[in-house]
Amino acid sequence: MMRFYGFFRSSSSYRCRIAFNLKGIQPDFVPVNLRAGEQRDPAFLAMNPQGLLPALDTGRGVLTQSLAIIEWLDETRPAPPLLPADPVQRAAVRAFAQIIACEIHPLQNLRVLNFIKQNYGLDQDGADAWARHWIAEGLTACEAIAARRSHGGAFTFGDTPGLADICLIPQLFSADRFGLDSASWPRLREIRAACDALPAFADAHPARQPDAQ
Ligand SMILES: N[C@@H](CCC(=O)N[C@@H](CS)C(=O)NCC(=O)O)C(=O)O
Q1: Share of the chain above pLDDT 70, in %
Q2: Ligand 1, closest atom to CA 111?
Q3: Is the dihedral of CA 161, 14, 169, 149 positive or negative?
Q4: β-strands 55-57, 28-31: how paired?
Q5: How far, in Å, CA of 193 to CA of 156, rounded?
Q6: C-alpha angle with apex 107: 117 to 101, nearest 5 degrees?
Q7: I want to staple 5 with a disulfide (CB 3.0 to 4.6 A). Which of 33, 55, 187, 190 is the partner?
C-alpha cells in the first residue's frame, strides 16, 4: 500500500492530491504538521533529508518532489494522461508547471519566509509583501501564456486537465491566502472555475483534508 506524507495547506501536497484523484488512486494519508515543525523530525528527515513535503512511500522506495511524484504517477498509470503526446506541447506544459514550482513557490515557502524574517528584520507584513510580489509576478506571466491559448479549451493546455492545471490551482489558493486579488488574471480565473467543477480538484482542496485546521 502506498503512503502519502502531506499537509492540508501545503501547495506541493495539494498538487499531488489532484494528480492522485485524476488517476483514481487513494494512497494512505500520513499528516505531517508543518506548523508544528514535524517536517524536521528525525523520522521524517530519514525519509526525506530535505525536510520538505510531500513524500510518497510507494512500497518500493520513497519519492519526493511533487513534480517527480506526479510524473512517476503518469508514467506508471498512463490514463488519463497528464501531459500531451506531442514533445513540443509537453515541453510547454512542463515550462508552465516550472514557472510555478521552480520560480514562484520556492520564494513564498515557509522556510524562506521564516529566514527573511529572522535574518533581514522583516515582520510578518514585510514577509507577506515579499511573497505577494513573487506570486503576482509569476502569475502575471502564467496569465499571458494561458491567455494566448484560451481558444484551445477550458483548461490551461486544452480541453482536459493536466500538469499545468495541477500546479496552477494550488498556486491560486496560495495567492488568495496572501491576499492577492485574482481580478488581474481573468484567464486563470476561467481555468480555475473549470477545475473547481471537477471532483478531482474539489476533493483535493485544503479545506476538505482530514488534517485541515
Ligand atoms: N519543490 C518541492 C517543494 C517542497 C516544499 O517546499 N514543500 C513545502 C510545503 S508546500 C514544505 O514542506 N515546507 C516546509 C518548510 O518550509 O519548512 C516540491 O515540489 O515538492
Answers
A1: 100
A2: 16
A3: negative
A4: unpaired
A5: 12
A6: 155
A7: 55
Helix (H) or strand (E) holding 177: helix 163-177
Atom of ligand 1 nearest to the CA of 54: 20
Q: Sort strands 28-31 and 3-6 into parallel, antiparallel or unpaired.
A: parallel
Mean per-residue pLDDT of the chain: 97
Indicate if ligand 1 lies below 6 Å from the C-beta of 12.
yes
Predicted confidence (pLDDT) per residue in 84-107, tens digit: 999 999 999 999 999 999 999 999
Cα 151 from chain centroid? 25
Query: Rounded to 5 degrees, what angle do the CA atoms 28, 1, 47 make?
Result: 75
Q: Cell 510547454 sits at which residue?
A: 92
E-strand stretches of the chain: 3-6, 28-31, 55-57, 62-64
Domain architecture of the chain: domains with CATH = 3-80 (3.40.30.10), 87-201 (1.20.1050.10)
Q: Which helix (H) or strand (E) holds 193?
A: helix 186-196
